[in-house]
């Protein structure tokens, strides 16, 4: 059933002018095209707002905050606006492979009791040179029942069923002070 599911892609954006269009284009170029991209311009003082005004795709919805509220509050605001059966992120300075959504949905089809997946990621410098690569090899069964099992999960790669997000209630403000919202 997930092969044609609506996927809500959440993108908080704060002073993101340098990488914003590449991030958006990497969602527009997905092989799975049933998505909505929700972008929150979180009080940017650069040309982020101007760039967002140029978008002309009915699947992209832009919201604006006059004052910067921060990443967690922005994500929670976007969680409440999302309409998809699945929720994922695309940070405004990230890009993803064109088949990212398709691959994640396939994981859900193959393992019905999954509630979230994550993926490999590469960290790059501002000039797009690879700084590090992380191969995600998570034992999801162990993750769900062993509180001591703590593999690296990058927030920008989380792909979750909406029902799990509703159960958890989004990000808790506790993480504003300690980091590691992943």
Please give a quick description of this structure.
The protein is α/β, with parallel strands linked by helices and 182 residues long. 30% of the residues lie in helices and 21% in strands.
Give the termini distance in whole angstroms.
27 Å
| Sheet of most strands | 6 strands, mixed
Number of helical segments with 4 or more residues: 7
Number of strands: 8
Strand order of the largest sheet: 3-2-1-4-8-5
The helix content is: 25-40%
- Structural class, judged by helices and strands? alpha/beta
Beta content comes to 15-25%
Low-pLDDT ranges: none
Q: Give the overall shape.
A: globular
**N to C succession of SSEs:** EHEHEHEHEEEHEHH
Average pLDDT over all residues: 81
Over all CA atoms, what is the radius of gyration? 16 Å
Features of this protein?
single chain; 182 residues; alpha/beta; six-stranded mixed β-sheet; two-stranded antiparallel sheet; 7 helices; 8 strands
What secondary-structure arrangement, pairings included, does this model have?
Elements: E1 7-13, H1 20-28, E2 35-42, H2 48-53, E3 60-65, H3 71-81, E4 86-89, H4 100-110, E5 116-117, E6 121-124, E7 130-134, H5 140-145, E8 159-161, H6 162-168, H7 174-178
Parallel strand pairs: 1-2, 1-4, 2-3
Antiparallel strand pairs: 4-8, 5-8, 6-7
Fold and architecture overview:
The protein has 182 residues and is an alpha/beta fold. The protein contains 7 helices and 8 strands; from the N terminus they run E-H-E-H-E-H-E-H-E-E-E-H-E-H-H. It has helices spanning 20-28, 48-53, 71-81, 100-110, 140-145, 162-168, 174-178; strands spanning 7-13, 35-42, 60-65, 86-89, 116-117, 121-124, 130-134, 159-161. The strands form 2 sheets. A 6-stranded mixed β-sheet has the order 3-2-1-4-8-5, with helices on both faces. A two-stranded antiparallel sheet has the order 6-7. The longest helix is centred in the middle third of the chain and has 11 residues, at 71-81. The chain is globular, with a radius of gyration of 16 Å. The mean pLDDT is 81.
């Amino acid at each position: 059933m997930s092969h044609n599911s609506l996927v809500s892609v959440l993108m908080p954006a704060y002073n993101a002018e340098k990488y914003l269009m590449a991030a958006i284009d990497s969602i527009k170029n997905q092989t799975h095209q049933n998505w909505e991209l929700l972008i929150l311009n979180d009080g940017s003082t650069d040309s982020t707002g101007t760039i967002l005004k140029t978008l002309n795709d009915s699947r992209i919805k832009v919201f604006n905050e006059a004052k910067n509220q921060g990443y967690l509050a922005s994500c929670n605001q976007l969680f409440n606006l999302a309409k998809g059966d699945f929720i994922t992120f695309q940070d405004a300075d990230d890009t993803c492979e064109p088949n990212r959504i398709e691959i994640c949905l396939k994981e859900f089809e193959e393992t019905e009791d999954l509630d979230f997946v994550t993926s490999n990621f590469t960290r790059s410098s501002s000039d797009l040179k690879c700084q590090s690569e992380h191969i995600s090899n998570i034992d999801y069964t162990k993750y769900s029942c062993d509180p001591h099992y703590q593999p690296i999960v990058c927030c920008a790669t989380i792909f979750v069923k909406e029902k799990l997000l509703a159960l958890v209630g989004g990000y808790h403000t506790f993480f504003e002070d300690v980091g590691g919202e992943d």
